[in-house]
Each structure stands twice: as structure tokens, then as C-alpha cells.
Amino acid sequence: MDSSEIFEKLRLELRRGGLPLAVLAQLRQEHYGYSLRKEIGARGLEIDEGTLYPLIRRLEKQGLLESEWRHEDNRKKRFYRISTLGEEVLVLLIEEWRKLNASVDRILEES
Amino acid sequence: MNVLKSYAHQVVSYHPEKARDDLFAEIYDELCEECQDWQEMNPGKSETDFLDANREHPMKYATRLAAEGSAYLVGPQFYFSFLSTLKIGATLTGLFYLALAAIYSAASGLHLGTLLRVLSGFPITLLWVSASILGVFVALEKSGERASWLDKWSAADLEEIDDNKPMSRGYTLFDLGIAVLALLWLVDIIQVPAFIDVDSNSVSYWLVDLPDWFWIVVGVMLVFDIAHALFRLTRNFWSPRLRLTTIASNLVWIALLGFAIVQPELLSIQGESASPPQDLLQMAEKAIRGVLGFVCALLAWDTVIHVWRLWR
User: Which of A88, B137, B247, B284 is the most exposed place for a label (fewest CB within 10 A)?
Assistant: First the structure.
């Protein structure tokens, strides 16, 4: 395995931890799968559907998201939005994320 | 043909039936929207071109979509419990068949055919045991049950180990091999040459005059040694309990072999020779006593090492 492959794997690992936070935050506004992916991608965080759908299913199962099926353009679309519980958890996660970033930054600066 | 619809159907066909409708709707919608965007950037390209350029094999895609779902027969939270249970099941089944073989041997006078008939049931039974264990774990996985037994854990339950002395797998396999061969010899499945050829006269000899209780104890000890070795294969380090059982087993073996060595006669002639070659017989007896003595010495050395490591 060369360095670019190793880097790619570690990069994905690094991003994976932040994805639930990004998805929950983005779902303060209602989205369906593709629009959510596009919105997050437009902000510089590319996420493939093989990662996004399992993640939003898990978050919904945990009660952090609510969903609703609607018909648009002759197709069924599932719209997601953050739940009350999700909002509470998101506030805690944002705090934790900032602490984590600050800690890692300190370590990187000191090293 | 709507190729996007076909692709989405193919993908969801790998998922559980109850999840397919919702998954299909979501994937199909995603494909349609993404394809539309892609075609705007790539005028003149077809939906097939879009799939070729942007999607992988439906099975690979289905796998990625299931990555965090309950698509496992036995998922990560149960996997090691499942493997441990399989090992225990296989060991117990093996021991059960060894015991059964020993009982049948005792009852039927060590007939090879009977033994083979008994042992031939082992693979099928093992298959059933494994399938039953798999069934239980699949049911647990599908029911969403948590591995709650792993929550009831205390550091005090950890077995003390001698981490300076990892257990040698080769040593254990050697013990296992010797015990299995000896058991097979005891129940007459494998035979050692039992004759001496002198001047073209064949003379058969047999181990003699060792009481029945001796052979029963030998059989029990061999079954114990096999079980002990199988258990040791599941461990990486020696523990005091394992050392104690090894010491106890060695001492019993030393006593048994010592008892055999001090017998006045070990071999008797069974052939038709008018004049048994006494010199040769005595030499063979000496050789057997020598081998038994050497094994006793090895066992004693092994015992001393275990005792030293236990109390040092």
C-alpha cells in the first residue's frame, strides 16, 4: 500500500467522525437525500451515498431525525429534519467538536 | 428500458425484503436527480453512460449501503461471542464422541468397526451443533438483542497469567498428537508391529500382565490429555490452574509408566516357535523399559519446570 492509499484511508477515517455533526446541523433545514448530499458537498464536505444513507438511517433509528415521504416529480421522496432530541444532542456535539478541535490544535502546535 | 430503475431494483434485491420499497424509492430518486445534473454537464450522454461513469456493480453498491445496517447474519457485536461459542460447541462435541467411543470400546471389546461407526457420526453432529449455534446468533442479531452478557464483566474475573511464558502452540500440538495416537493404539485402531523375526521364524509378542485397571486409567488419562490440549489451544499464556492440571497429569503418567517399568515381565511370546529367542526378548524388554524410563524423565523435567514457574 503506497502513501496516497494510506492517506486516503486515514482521510476518510478523519472525516467520518465529523459527518454525523454535519448531517445533523444541515438537517436543521428540511432535505431529501440528494439535496442534503449536494448542500453538504457545496460546503466542501463531499459525502457519497453509500455513507450518507446508512448514516441517516442510523440517526433516525436513534431518534435524532424525523422523516416524511412525499410525492414530487412523480417520485417518492423522503424528507428528513432534525428532531427535538437531535437538536439537544447536536448542541452537545458542537461543544464537543470545538473542544476536540482545540485540543488537537494545541497538540499540533506543540509538537 | 429505464436503466436507472433496473439498477435501483438490482441494488435493493440484495437487501432484506421489508426494507426494499423504501430503499428503492430513495435510491431511484437519488439516481434520477444525480443523472439529471450529470447530463446537464455532459450533454448527449445517456443514463447508461451516467451509471458507467458514476456507479459500481450493484452488489458492491448494495454492500456499501448496508455498511451500518443490520445486513449481517452475525454482526460485529456478536461475532467474537459466536466464534467462542462455536469453539466450545466443537470441543464438547469432540469430547462427547471420544467418551462415546471409549464406552463402546469397553462394551464391545475394542472392535474397530464399531468404533468407526461411532466416530463417523461426529462430522454430522458437529454440523448440527454449529448450525444450531448459528441459528441462535442469527436470531439474536435479527431481534436487535444486545450482547448484554458482555456488560456483566469485572476485572476480578480475569484469569491470572504468566505473561513471561507464552504457551507454545507446537508443544500443545505435540501433546495432542501423542495423546491421540496413543488412544488410537489403545483402542486398536492403529497397531504397532508385534513380532520379532529370527532366522525366518516369526515370533509374536504382546505386552502382558498389566491389570485391567491400568488400561482403564490409561484410557481416561488419554481422553483427559486430549481435552486438556484442546483447551490449551484456546489459550495464549499459562495460568496457575493450567500448570497445576499439567503437573497433576504428569505425576499420574509417571506413576503409571513407573508401574509398567517395574513389572517383572513386560512381553510374552505368542508365536509357535519351539525355542523362544530369550536374548532377543530380553533386549526388546530392555528397550521398552528404556523408552518408558526416558518418557518418565521427560515428564519429570516438564513437571519440575511447571512447579518452578508456579512458585518462583
Answer: A88
